[in-house]
Amino acid sequence: MTAPDVLDAARAWAAGDPDPETRAELEAAIAAAEAGDELAVAAVTDAFRGRLQFGTAGLRGAIGAGPNRMNRVVVQQASAGLAAFLVGREPHPSIVIGWDGRRGSEEFARDAAEVFAGAGVRAILLPRLLPTPVTAFAVRHLGASAGVMVTASHNPPADNGYKVYLGGADEGSQIVPPVDGEIAERIVEAAAVPVADYPRGEPEVAGEGVWEAYVAATAAIGLPTDQDAGSALTVVYTPLHGVGLETVEAVLAEAGFPPVIVVPEQAEPDGAFPTVAFPNPEEPGALDLAMALATERGADLILANDPDADRLAVAVPDAAAPSGWRMLTGNEVGLLLGWDAARAARGRGVLAASIVSSPGLGTIAEAHGLRFVQTLTGFKWVSRVPDLTFGFEEALGYLVNPGTVRDKDGVSALVRVLTLAVELHERGSSLTEELLALAGEFGAFESGQVSVRVTDLARIPATMAALRATPPAELAGSAVLAADDLSLPEHGEIGDILRFTLDDGSRVMVRPSGTEPKVKVYIDAMSAEGAPAQRVRAARARVAAIADAVRPLLEA
Fold first, then answer.
1. Same domain, 62 and 193
2. Fewer Cβ close by (within 10 Å): the C or N end of the chain?
3. Taking a C-beta distance cutoff of 8 angstroms, is the pair 460, 451 a contact?
4. Sheet harboring 235-238: ordered strands across?
5. Transmembrane stretches, by residue range (predicted)?
6. How would DSSP label each residue in 147-191?
7. Residue 282 within a domain
8. Is a pLDDT exceeding 70 seen at residue 229?
9. Of 193, 209, 225, at which residue does a domain stop?
10. Is 114 helix (H, G, I), strand (E, B) or coil?
């Protein structure tokens, strides 16, 4: 599309944009582009160079005008396409719509609901902004055909998204192929009609009973009646400017826990996320305020949800850390929760993790007579494992209650982590000491990650292509025994992932991020020699050495 064509398309979009904010932003950009501003020309071109792609994560992108951005037009087109898919699938479809506290979320949710209702789909709006797991729960609880959650989870503040669940046989799981492609086709068809011509209807609004049922079901997996809540730990909690606080406090109160100490600057939903560079608890600095408050209050534990509360971060006291606190990795929390689930499973059920998550869960499963399943990356696959008892992915996603929610759930995971921490505390132990005990019983499984964030998206496929063409022969003094391209049929066409197996048993996985402009490397090492602390030190040292060897390969 030439520059004049782009500007014509932008002018046409502005004329029909129902959102005065994005319309004004676009009109200003058009005027600047017409005046010769090269940055404005590039911005408008990028916004109109194609459509925001609908896939297994639904839609996710920066908010702004144009088909390649998240906005009210794109959301209505997506809703019309999804409605057409549902109407063609069953005679009386229904859908639940939830939203978080990001910019535009409530407007997007209400636009979607009106379009669904106008297309003949029973549309049920949740009563207010709530965590993503509540929407996933509501699909099953209400017996809905589908669900939509308007959220960009832990993406940067400029982003928003549109996440789709299916009910019925899919049990409220996220969509997977080929359904995503079928819905995408319907969206393209819907986009050929001006959104102003879409029929609209009045959606229903769910009562508080849906949220209350989620709170009750989640509280039920918490503190057992024979545990003394009075001896519970002092806990600092932050929702990171997201929507987790109300639900977390209600669940903990119903489960019998004392109140947590909340980081006041981050307590209320705020789509600008003013106290963090990125609203992702994995990012450096995201938990600084929580750590400072925990130190001031003499806390035993820090718990944090991401903005839509489907992920959980855990930090523990560590005198060796500069802040006095160490954030546990997603794999460490996953192994703790996996062990917690395995000991209660009594030999029945399945433990599952995505292929880039710690293989240590497989060792725990085997020791407890359980099956272990590795899935494709993405929680949409973890949640679909038959007979699932517990599943996780290293990116702070955990599913501890598959009978209630078929997606990662940071609230229920918080309840189980806190319950486990209280149990250990009563025995004179802690999460940190239990990780050492697991290292003694199963070996020390340590993991690390290297990420390179890019501004030029072309760098991502270029980096993957270079590693495919010339894989490393050795990393950190260990020979690379196998370099496997997991996108190939002989490896199951798992996805755009490269796996390097080293002669010391370590594993390196490289893939593009599914939600952010990053190349991500996952490193796993294991040690079973010496005392538990020695095993942990050896495995961590190996991970660090491999990370140092990998970075130059990504930055070349």
1. yes
2. C
3. no
4. 261-262, 235-238, 301-305, 312-317, 325-327
5. none
6. EEEE--TTS-TTEEEEEEEE-GGGTTEEP-TTHHHHHHHHHHHHH
7. yes
8. no
9. 209
10. helix
Q: Label residue 237 by pLDDT band (50, 70, 90).
A: very high
Type and span of the H or E element at 199: none
Pairing of strands 474-475, 478-485: antiparallel
Distance CA 502, CA 505 (A): 6
User: Residue 219: inside a domain, yes or no?
Assistant: no
> Are 172 and 93 within one domain?
yes
Q: Report whether pLDDT(311) > 60.
A: yes
Q: Which domain holds residue 116?
A: 56-209
Chosen domain end from 307, 327, 347: 327
Residue 515 in this model has a pLDDT that exceeds 70: no
Q: What are 190's strand-pairing partners?
A: none
Closest CA to 350 of 359, 337, 341: 341
pLDDT digits (tens, 9 = 90+) for 77-111: 999 999 999 999 999 999 999 999 999 999 999 99
Q: Which residues contact 273 (CB under 8 A, 6 or more apart)?
A: 157, 240, 241, 279, 307
Chain segment 255-272, per-residue pLDDT in tens: 999 999 999 999 999 999
Q: Give which of 261, 255, 263, 258 is closest to 281, Cα–Cα.
A: 263
| 430-462: pLDDT as tens digits | 999 999 999 999 999 999 999 888 888 888 999
pLDDT tens track for 134-171: 999 999 999 999 999 999 999 999 999 999 999 999 99
Catalytic pick among 94, 145, 153, 447:
153
Other Cβ atoms within 10 Å of 448 Cβ, number: 21
| Run of H or E including 293 | helix 288-297
Residues 297, 193: Cα–Cα separation, whole Å: 58
Q: In the block, which residue shows the tokens 């499984």?
A: 445
**CB neighbour class for 209 (10 Å; exposed up to 12, middle 13-18, buried from 19):** exposed
Residue at 378 is within a domain? yes
> How confident is the model at residue 513, as a pLDDT?
82
Q: Identity (one letter) of the amino acid at 81?
A: G
What is the predicted pLDDT for the residue at 527?
Answer: 96
| Local structure of residue 52 (DSSP, 8 states) | P
323 has catalytic annotation: no
Q: Are residues 249 and 351 in the same domain?
A: no
